[in-house]
Amino acid sequence: METPSAPATEIVRHSDFVRTVHWLIAVCFLLAVATGFALYWVSILSWMQPFFGGPYGSIGVHFTSGLGLALLTIPIFFAWRKRMRWTATDSYFVRHLREHAMRPEQVPPNDTGFFNGGQKMFFWAFVISTVIFLITGLVWWWRREPWMPPGVYPVCRTTHRVLAVIMTGGLLVHIYKATIGEPGTFASMVKGTVTASWARVRRPGWFRELDGGK
Ligand code: HEM
Ligand code: HEM
């Protein structure tokens, strides 16, 4: 379908509420990463522990930020779950990343909606991993309780650590794609709006849904 030309206006992309929740999630996640790795990689990162009040302070900050992360995931899940439904265009996008997502000037397929396939994958990985972090983290927290079945804690501990490495890698890709990897995107999470031409070129399917695009 042909995409209409863009008026020179700003379009609301992220509400105040969504932006606030997103940045609180970022703070909680980064605190959990910093304290988690400071506890895990003692030989290299233990110098970070005093910033969080020593080893016990780091565990406390980690547990609290982890619970905060899990709580904040609930509103962002409900705010974005419909926009994150997978489409045939998303499958096409992830199969053709070389043509559509390797350089900042490349643009996604013409039917790309509010989020592209890569963003949807990151969203679902984030939601599912937070649930797993929560379950495995609570098992870790309650590992010495008499009711904890033997063998559960070592499995959960390894899962928690491996997932931490995977999601920290995913976060680096997310930060790159949300800033220099797709110019104009970062501003939308700060001031809430994008230019109409950004929407037309970067998310043509969403642009056509908007009044200005009709
Ligand atoms: C979602 C809620 C989360 C909860 C409830 C939680 C809870 C915990 C607990 C209780 C520990 C054990 C601390 C100790 O006694 O030494 C731990 C360790 C750890 N967590 Fe989390 N966590 C959560 C999220 C995360 C996230 C998001 C990351 C990083 C992406 C992460 C990375 C780590 C790492 C690397 C360790 C290993 C520390 C060590 O080996 O001593 N956690 N977590
Ligand atoms: C700390 C640096 C971060 C920056 C600069 C950043 C930036 C952004 C931006 C600009 C968007 C909007 C994308 C769009 O409108 O198309 C976004 C969306 C999103 N952010 Fe972040 N974010 C950061 C941290 C995080 C963290 C720690 C998480 C959770 C682990 C997270 C999860 C998400 C998710 C799930 C989305 C929607 C899907 C996507 O765009 O990939 N962000 N972020």
Description:
With 214 residues, the chain is mainly alpha-helical. The protein has two domains: 65 residues, no CATH class; 132 residues, Up-down Bundle (Fumarate Reductase Cytochrome B subunit), CATH 1.20.950. Helices cover 65% and strands 3% of the residues. The protein has ten helices and two strands; from the N terminus they run E-H-H-H-H-H-H-H-H-E-H-H. It has a two-stranded antiparallel sheet. Helix 3 packs across helix 6. It is elongated. The structure holds protoporphyrin IX containing FE (HEM) (2 copies). One protoporphyrin IX containing FE (HEM) binds next to helix 1, helix 3, helix 6 and helix 7.
